[in-house]
Amino acid sequence: MKTHTVNTAVIPATKLEEDSYDWWERHEQVLQIRKEIDPEIVLIGDSITHFWGGLPVSTSRHGTGQAWESVFGGRRVLNLGFGWDRTQNVLWRLDNGQFGGLSPKWVVINIGTNNTSETDNARASTAEEARDGVRAIVERVRKHAPSARIVLMAVFPREESPEDPRRKLIGRMNELYAELAAELGLTFLDIGPSMLAEDGNLPREIAFDTCHLTEQGYQLWADALREVLNRESK
């Protein structure tokens, strides 16, 4: 495996890739509505979070919204999911006003799948680099909202086959994420096993393109997350 002297996953960066939405417009929307929402829960992530639902309203949504309502209905939620984001993009957003002044009870972090992608604009991260990117995110969240409880999601399975190199990289990332959560006192939530068939393949009924979730996939996330929120709120 290549070694790199500079870990790009911890260097804040603005939009790197083109996607189905305007990255900068969504950033401005967050700045305008975040204090008005006064969120109890803040979701931090990439397109999987972005296209689930909530505010700011997305022009695109995956699923019907029932899973969203089953876990977040009646709660004030700010969705800081941005399609194609990597850890470095989240760091820039946290450094540029998206989180400052908020006091959520919960922060749910689901980031890292795009760090496994090699594009013309950014190289893939190693598992260790992505872990360090998440560490930097947690540090910023705690600086702004020291009393918030943080749920760190394991990166969801990606690609159909368990033998796919990306799947193996994600597996290693999640091992490191679990260790990081234990070190920092985070709640680590891994729903990956519930998403897979008995042979380890990722069904398209769960992730329609073997990355983004269907309503059925979102319901698995919602059920697991609701259990954590309810259990730890008592």
Automatic annotation (TrEMBL):
In terms of SUPFAM superfamilies, this protein maps to:
SGNH hydrolase (SSF52266)
The SGNH hydrolase-type esterase domain covers: 43-220
- Its domain of life reads Bacteria
State the name under which the record lists this protein.
Answer: SGNH hydrolase-type esterase domain-containing protein
The species this protein belongs to is: Paenibacillus glycanilyticus
Lineage of source species: Bacteria, Bacillati, Bacillota, Bacilli, Bacillales
